[in-house]
């Protein structure tokens, strides 16, 4: 079936399905018919709440616990999330277009993207309303597989239609956010991580390391030498009692997910407090 006919048939079905159950699955079906992919996911980010996984293909490499870690806080380090929230970039992007130098060596990449088995990823970032947006991730997992120039062009050409469909669907199917702004809390927790124990410069270095920046890009961003970056990182690791980026990453996640009733500041303050002593039994 010609591509235009395939596209037209899918779009007609999706227009009728906006605001209804099964929309996300139908959308992925259209994208698969137009561009061959091995894996796909759709995540909706409301203005204030934790991300909502609308479509996800469970694999052995990615257990439920990994997905739980992602939606409960690790997503704040994701290049697609940062592109939408920090840089207000929307459109079709490859992961390599958005991620910093050294990102593939980061623990976040190893925990999420490598576990997904991705060799290459192309994703849609679509604004819906206010600060809400949708991320559609399409992955190729075969060895050395990449999105060709033609495939990327197809995705870029259909972006306006996909954008309109998503905006119509998620405007209809989600209620206006209210209550505590969980996303803002997570942003504050990331920005403040380690600040109770580290100098301001050490905190800045650690924050960039968590985002996957290499020593060189940290030095460039902070306008300091690479040797100075290494020294700040060494001192920060010693104060935090970690010896690697992996340990730093899990310290951040553990402190974040252990924070009950978080109201601001460094999550390590409560995390590193010793548990209260049990009262002695009465004689």
Describe the structure.
This protein folds into two domains: 7-173, GAF domain (Beta-Lactamase); 182-270, Arc Repressor Mutant, subunit A (Orthogonal Bundle), CATH 1.10.10.10. The protein is built from 14 helices and five strands. It has helices at 3-17, 23-34, 64-72, 79-85, 95-98, 107-111, 113-116, 149-173, 182-192, 200-210, 215-222, 226-240, 245-258, 268-271, and strands spanning 39-45, 52-56, 91-94, 120-127, 133-140. A five-stranded antiparallel β-sheet has the order 2-1-5-4-3, with helices on both faces. A hairpin with a 5-residue loop joins β4 (120-127) and β5. The longest helix has 25 residues, at 149-173. The N and C termini lie far apart (84 Å).
| Poorly predicted parts | none
Please identify the structural class as seen in this structure.
alpha+beta
- Please give the number of β-strands: 5
SSE string, helices as H and strands as E: HHEEHHEHHHEEHHHHHHH
Q: Termini distance? A: 84 Å
Q: What is the CATH class of the largest domain?
A: Alpha Beta
CATH architecture of the largest domain: 2-Layer Sandwich
Task: Count every helix, treating DSSP H or I runs of 4 or more residues as helices.
Answer: 14
Strand content: 5-15%
Brief descriptors of the model:
2 domains, five-stranded antiparallel sheet, Arc Repressor Mutant, subunit A, Beta-Lactamase, single chain, 283 residues
Question: What can be said about this structure in brief?
Answer:
The protein has 283 residues and is an alpha+beta fold. 51% of the residues lie in helices and 11% in strands. A hairpin with a 6-residue loop joins strand 1 and strand 2.
